[in-house]
């Protein structure tokens, strides 16, 4: 088991945001968490990344306990999050954003190699490398956000709503890229509101509702599950 | 807006003027016109006097710039006006005082290498002293941040601000204790002799001690040269650090968005400490330069330069590094020119009215941007 999440209970003050969430990711998988706004998807990712703390349970990555370690140390373990809303450093250039992605690494030669490979994957970013991050379009920012995440050399990439606010063509492209990254050996935990797209590339999925896992299974099964279709795939399947 | 006017409310046309800030702008333009006119006539009447004031203002402005950078960097990263910053400057001045007067640290190169060129040995000795002051100030600022500010980072901003004022008083009155620094003025011993030059139409000459300054000439000293050159070197180093190094880029990333910076594996606490340390080191250097220029040290010496540098940072646009430099140079000029052409006792009043004008007319300062909305 690459990532083992067991019984997360997270509170924002008095609000009980995650109510005993458990799931796992196997090596090489794409696993998706789907659910409506406020179901607790982003809170789950932020708890894994160490930005939020769980009161109970544990998070294990490659059989190591990462439940209570600092966010920067979780990144060093290889668990890297591409946050919701892209969160590009608008006042830094595209290159500088990418360099920040590689912050935990010191080996200049390998960083240069990684840079070359992400710029090959995202040729648009090469054209814009000297521009400030804030000047990019939404699609370009999403590509930069993913590229920046890859610079950290993740073994598990946490993607939070990568399709948000993008046109259907761009969404197709982004999912193509996600599948490609996965095929090159990076396991992926994908949080999405676009359940159709997410389930179409995922191996397995978990359905979240108001802080709990209400359904889980192989992605293909969920795609044909009547209650999932009813709630997340726009009614009559 | 509902406009139910009672007889006490502002007439609508004045209200619209206020809304568009036209009155403020008009006042500012009028003020600028008066200042430009006064400076113009001063320049025409006596160019050498005017130039002299500009040189003095430049010297002061660069010291303010070094202090203002610390205010602006710390504000940029933790949104805190670090009112203890002026007192860090004071500690820097005292550290260099002890290093020179008690430890004779500035003489180590000449003791170790008696045959060394005296200018070189004084130079290396003074650099050693300034580096010591900078390190002490940096360590002190890291400690202050960890003990006083970090626990309040998620508290209301006013709490941290009040704490900063508390830290400021603590440093002042702790420094005033007889077994710490002193409650009295202490004469500062410069690490080198002062040389003064006279520049006029006939060129530049050394001004011998006790000789009167000839008419229509400008004097400047090795102190002014030192302050300006040292400040520029430090600012170039800072600029390089912030724009080119990994730590500097991380500082900008943390200033923009702490949570996302954490997701990059950046240790935000460490970056904040480094920012405090760099700001304090610059203030420490400024403390030594200021004490060399005005050779006295006293426990409250950081208050006024600290406040004026704060005004400089606000004028330039708090959070902006180039803004701190430009704001400080303007403050230096405003202070010396108003002392020369309006009245000496008025100069502080004028310096602080700049703060009021900036806050009224353009609260974001010269280089400031409108407050960024965070998603």
Structural overview:
- The complex is a heterodimer of chains A (237) and B (375).
- Chain A is α/β, with parallel strands linked by helices and 237 residues long.
- Chain A is built from ten helices and ten strands.
- Chain A has a domain at 1-78 and 156-162 and 187-237: P-loop containing nucleotide triphosphate hydrolases (Rossmann fold, 3-Layer(aba) Sandwich), CATH 3.40.50.300.
- In chain A, helix 3 runs parallel beside helix 6 (138-150).
- The mean pLDDT of chain A is 95.
- Chain B has a single domain (46-361), classed as Orthogonal Bundle (ABC transporter involved in vitamin B12 uptake, BtuC), CATH 1.10.3470.
- Chain B has helices spanning 12-19, 22-45, 47-78, 85-101, 108-112, 118-149, 157-175, 222-244, 246-256, 258-263, 268-293, 303-316, 321-341, 347-361; strands at 186-187, 196-200, 203-207, 218-221, 296-297.
- The longest helix of chain B has 32 residues, at 47-78.
- Chain B is globular and about 80 Å long.
- The A-B interface holds A 49-51, 70-72, 75-76, 80-81, 83, 85, 87, 89-92, 96, 99-101, 103-104, 148, 152 and B 246, 249-250, 252-253, 255-257, 259-268, 375.
Question: What class, by secondary structure content of chain B?
Answer: mainly alpha
| Number of extended strands of chain A | 10
| Major pleated sheet of chain A | 6 strands, mixed
Count of helical stretches of chain A:
10
Q: Helical proportion of chain B?
A: 55-70%
DSSP, total strands of chain B: 5
CATH topology of chain B: ABC transporter involved in vitamin B12 uptake, BtuC
Low-pLDDT windows of residues of chain B: none
Per CATH, the class of the domain at 1-78 and 156-162 and 187-237 in chain A reads: Alpha Beta
Query: Mind telling me the CATH class of chain B?
Result: Mainly Alpha
Q: How many domain modules of chain B?
A: 1
Query: CATH H-level name of the domain at 1-78 and 156-162 and 187-237 in chain A... which superfamily?
Result: P-loop containing nucleotide triphosphate hydrolases
User: Largest sheet of chain B at a glance?
Assistant: 3 strands, antiparallel
| Span between termini of chain A | 33 Å
- Average pLDDT of chain B, rounded to a whole number, is 91
If you average the pLDDT of chain A, what whole number results?
95
The percentage of residues in β strands of chain A lies in 25-35%
Instruction: Output the strand order for the largest sheet of chain A.
Output: 6-7-8-3-9-10
């Amino acid at each position: 088991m690459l990532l083992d999440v067991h019984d997360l209970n997270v509170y924002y003050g008095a609000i009980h945001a995650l109510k005993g969430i458990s799931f796992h990711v196997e090596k090489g998988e794409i696993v998706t968490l789907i659910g409506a706004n406020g179901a607790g998807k982003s809170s789950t990712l932020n708890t894994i990344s160490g930005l939020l703390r769980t009161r109970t349970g544990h998070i294990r990555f490659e059989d190591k306990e990462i439940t209570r370690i600092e966010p920067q140390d979780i990144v060093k373990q290889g668990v890297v999050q591409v946050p919701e809303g892209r969160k590009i450093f608008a006042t830094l250039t595209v290159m500088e954003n990418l360099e920040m992605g590689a912050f935990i690494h010191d080996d200049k030669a390998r960083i240069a190699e990684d840079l070359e490979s992400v710029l090959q994957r995202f040729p648009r970013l090469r054209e814009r490398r000297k521009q400030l991050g804030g000047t990019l379009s939404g699609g370009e920012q999403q590509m930069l956000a993913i590229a920046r995440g890859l610079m950290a050399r993740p073994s598990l990439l946490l993607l939070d709503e990568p399709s948000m606010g993008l046109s259907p063509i761009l969404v197709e492209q982004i999912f193509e890229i996600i599948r490609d990254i996965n095929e090159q050996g990076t396991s992926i935990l994908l949080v999405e509101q676009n359940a159709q797209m997410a389930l179409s590339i995922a191996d397995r999925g978990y359905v979240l509702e108001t802080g709990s896992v209400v359904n889980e299974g192989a992605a293909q099964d969920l795609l044909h599950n009547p209650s999932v279709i009813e709630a997340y795939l726009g009614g009559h399947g | 807006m509902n406009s139910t006017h009672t007889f006490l409310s502002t007439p609508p046309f004045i209200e619209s003027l206020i809304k568009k800030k036209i009155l403020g702008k008009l006042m500012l333009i009028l003020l600028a016109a008066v200042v430009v006119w006064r400076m113009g006539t001063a320049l025409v009447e006596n160019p050498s006097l005017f130039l002299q004031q500009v040189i003095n203002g430049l010297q002061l402005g660069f010291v303010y710039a070094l202090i203002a950078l610390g205010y602006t960097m710390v504000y940029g990263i933790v949104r805190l006006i670090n009112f203890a910053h002026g007192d860090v400057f004071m500690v820097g001045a005292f550290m260099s005082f002890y290093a020179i007067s008690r430890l004779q640290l500035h003489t180590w190169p000449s003791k170790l290498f008696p045959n060394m060129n005296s200018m070189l040995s004084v130079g290396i000795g003074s650099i050693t002293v300034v580096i010591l002051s900078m390190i002490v100030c940096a360590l002190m600022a890291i400690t202050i941040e960890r003990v006083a500010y970090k626990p309040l980072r998620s508290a209301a901003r006013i709490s941290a601000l009040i704490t900063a004022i508390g830290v400021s008083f603590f440093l002042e009155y702790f420094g005033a204790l007889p077994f710490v620094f002193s409650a009295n003025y202490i004469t500062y011993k410069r690490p080198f002799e002062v040389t003064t030059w006279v520049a006029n139409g006939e060129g530049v000459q050394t001004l011998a001690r006790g000789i009167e300054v000839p008419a229509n000439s400008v004097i400047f000293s090795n102190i002014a040269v030192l302050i300006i050159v040292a400040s520029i070197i430090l600012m170039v180093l800072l600029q390089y650090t912030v724009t080119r190094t990994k730590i500097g880029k991380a500082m900008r990333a943390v200033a923009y968005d702490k949570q996302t910076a954490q997701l990059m594996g950046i240790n935000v606490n460490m970056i904040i400490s480094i920012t405090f340390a760099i700001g304090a080191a610059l203030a420490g250097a400024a403390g030594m330069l200021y004490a060399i220029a005005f050779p006295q040290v006293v426990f409250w010496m950081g208050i006024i330069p600290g406040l004026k540098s704060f005004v400089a940072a606000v004028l330039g646009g708090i959070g902006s590094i180039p803004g701190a430099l430009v704001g400080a140079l303007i403050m230096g000029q405003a202070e010396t020119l108003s002392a020369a052409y309006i009245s000496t006792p008025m100069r502080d009043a004028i310096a602080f009215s700049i703060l009021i004008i900036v806050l009224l007319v353009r609260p974001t300062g010269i280089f400031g941007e409108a407050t960024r909305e965070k998603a």
